[in-house]
Amino acid sequence: MRTRAKICGITRVEDVQAVVQAGADAIGLVFYPPSPRAVNSMQAQTLVAHIPAYVQVVGLFVNATVQEIEHVLNDIPLDILQFHGDESPEQCQAIAKQTKRRWYKAIQVKPDLDLINEIQRYQQAGASAILLDAWHPNLKGGTGEQFDWSEFPKLAIPLILAGGLNPDNIQDAIATTQAYAVDVSGGVESAKGIKDQQLIERFMQGVHCGSAK
Fold first, then answer.
1. Residue 120, SS3?
2. Would you give per-residue pLDDT tens digits along the chain (213 residues)?
3. What is the CATH number of the domain that holds 106?
4. Which residues are catalytic?
5. Pairing of strands 194-195, 56-61
6. Which residue range forms the structural domain that includes residue 96?
7. Domain count of the chain?
């Protein structure tokens, strides 16, 4: 099965165009103001206007209220919600029901975490996928760090690999984890929030090559 790919933290129209041209399946927009990759509704509207059909628009939120998410959805036609904070399965489920959106949850892989049980909790609440990211005590994603890929589980629910991915390790990452999809942000940047077209192209070439093996 072909590995899907999302490029997250897009802030510029030229980066949208580079991602689409390289063949990514989804574009991630960050609606978390503390992030250097955050966009506001006006910026997001401009970006979404350049995203064609068949490329999904994912909105990343960190501990946002349903009112805050609905405010974004009033302006931005997000296809799916990515919960990247401390949201419980019940909170994710309630927000999804009220906003009528599919969703998935990012889980940071901590050393003492019962990962299988955590995944199943969100799966039972209706998650369309689970994203596994490297744990950091202060940051919510975008750390540039990776966890031990040998711990990547094999489950029926689609699992997305994130954390420390770049053009040089993406083929190995796919071969090791057999992830349904991969998610990259900092690994294809020249600066925080500024994507590099050549790095995007190399990353996507690695995804396609890794999927073919």
1. helix
2. 899 999 999 999 999 999 999 999 999 999 999 999 999 999 999 999 999 999 999 999 999 999 999 999 999 999 999 999 999 999 999 999 999 999 999 999 988 889 999 999 999 999 999 999 987 655 555 566 788 898 899 999 999 999 999 999 999 999 999 999 999 999 999 999 999 999 999 999 999 998 876
3. 3.20.20.70
4. 8, 133
5. unpaired
6. 4-212
7. 1
